[in-house]
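Regression test attached.
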Amino acid sequence: AEQPEAKACRMPEFVGTAIGDTMGLVIANVDSALLEAMNIDKRYRSIGIFGGRTGAGPQVMAADDAVKDTNTEIISIELPRDTKGGAGHGSLIIFGADDVSDARRAVEVALNNLEEKFGDVYGNPAGHLEFQYTARASFALNKAFGAPIGKAFGLIVGAPAVIGVMLADVALKAADVEVLGYASPAKGTSYSNEVILQICGDSGAVRQAILTARDVGIPLLESLGGPAPSSATPYI
Amino acid sequence: AEQPEAKACRMPEFVGTAIGDTMGLVIANVDSALLEAMNIDKRYRSIGIFGGRTGAGPQVMAADDAVKDTNTEIISIELPRDTKGGAGHGSLIIFGADDVSDARRAVEVALNNLEEKFGDVYGNPAGHLEFQYTARASFALNKAFGAPIGKAFGLIVGAPAVIGVMLADVALKAADVEVLGYASPAKGTSYSNEVILQICGDSGAVRQAILTARDVGIPLLESLGGPAPSSATPYI
Amino acid sequence: AEQPEAKACRMPEFVGTAIGDTMGLVIANVDSALLEAMNIDKRYRSIGIFGGRTGAGPQVMAADDAVKDTNTEIISIELPRDTKGGAGHGSLIIFGADDVSDARRAVEVALNNLEEKFGDVYGNPAGHLEFQYTARASFALNKAFGAPIGKAFGLIVGAPAVIGVMLADVALKAADVEVLGYASPAKGTSYSNEVILQICGDSGAVRQAILTARDVGIPLLESLGGPAPSSATPYI
């Protein structure tokens, strides 16, 4: 669709925007009544806010890079049912920090790394596939998917969910990996039309499982809705 | 998008339609098996039915006017995840009455007042903002948001949720208001991509908090998706 | 909208595609870690996978035919919030079998019968109506809607939900039927903008209730969004 021209924003809280209608913001001195309303116990002075309409895995991966690189913590990760009429999720991720410069830096890293994380998101009008891989998971992946810190982690998403079930089977047969989680429309998702498999294990095995699922997933999705190109540049 | 031509409906139960694919209906003698299936204890003779595809706050506000003006009660308010591919909610509101003329009158008032309540809904392809204000909340706002009856109440919505977090902070800093509720994608919404802040307090303070949030929200949303005009005529 | 050309898929697991962005697949020897992750106790050797972006009732009805005709069981039925920006659900249905040829046959029957089940789905840009009827419910309808096995069953769906409330009342007044279930945006749906009535009873009464609701529903939906044609060919 045609994209209306976005307008520049000069607010000091504004950090930037990125793919997936994603925005990053910071609050230097977060209101204490807001922290209480958000049910956050710890008295963070500053927060970073990062999320978009389209994409959950990519934003969580980008936030994972950000907490590795900065003096921040992941306060919360929430996944609305969104993607603007698509089959999946949007995202809302909050970083906590003692200093606003740390919060800002985390949001900048996340925004800068986001496009890469859309590299193995493939889509057409019928649905989407998503693959994520890291050799070393950090706190965002731990919070969102229970990934063990410092270990290899992989995410395999198929939408509509019918495709995701098949990809889960293919991935688990392809290599000796461990299932961390399996989410489906009625359990573990926000009622999205996805099956999401989370795996860990030896980094080579995790990567092999993902690549095999990707090889199977693309022709399946294309049989339903035509060409399903990458949203950016594949990275796995 | 082009709007197909709606056809006139001559059913006696039909009251009318309004903005947001909203419809109003009445049932003079509601079937007792239906009341039971809906889990309604009280034996209302007549019900009014009011709701749409797009919008929850506007319909709740319009229903609030309607219960003030008529001899009806709010039976239930339910908020589907809708807005036709947008980031928010739709609505289903049911009025109870002893007499069908009262139910009809409530639905008429709600339909007539709905466009005004869309006055401070601002949208573009990336999301929407919503602001609602009343000096005197009634039963619909009480049921939906816990607003104290007869007191000033304000609603501040930002979508995608990333914007809503910022608006909540700005509003709470702008004036001495009390937080009634804070809803986010995983808690208090139907997994919509929104953050919703509900406030009460002195009417001047509530209004000030809302106006400040509105001033911040519009440029933020426009930085993501271009011009974000009002859906009708701003009223606050 | 223009439909991109789907590409042929030659994988042995691929069974076919159908209306509603629906796909059918089989897995001959399902991975045991996947069965465990899906929380399935029984050790099925083969599974059939069937579901789509648009439609839940039609897919459940088609799966109901499939279990009648084949040596399979319904393992699970999950209903995402989908329909590609519409007001309703998508679907994910899993068949279990000892032999892959049985699983394949079930998926084939479901795919072949799906278009018929869209016969009484009526839609326009404002919403949709769905009516389903069978003189003899089987295991899929039992699992999804609690339909008594071997008895007449009817499904009445109105979206936006405001229309569904009216159809439920009309149906219950039209004939002596029993309410099996009533689902609404906040209860029993995946936050869809629908009211769904499930009824059973004498087959003539069930059919009469459905036909009366259909006569009332179409002009109501058309008053909101213009012509609301059948998605295929009406069968009731």
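Expected vs. actual: identical. The CA atoms of residues 121 and 231 of chain A lie 6 Å apart.
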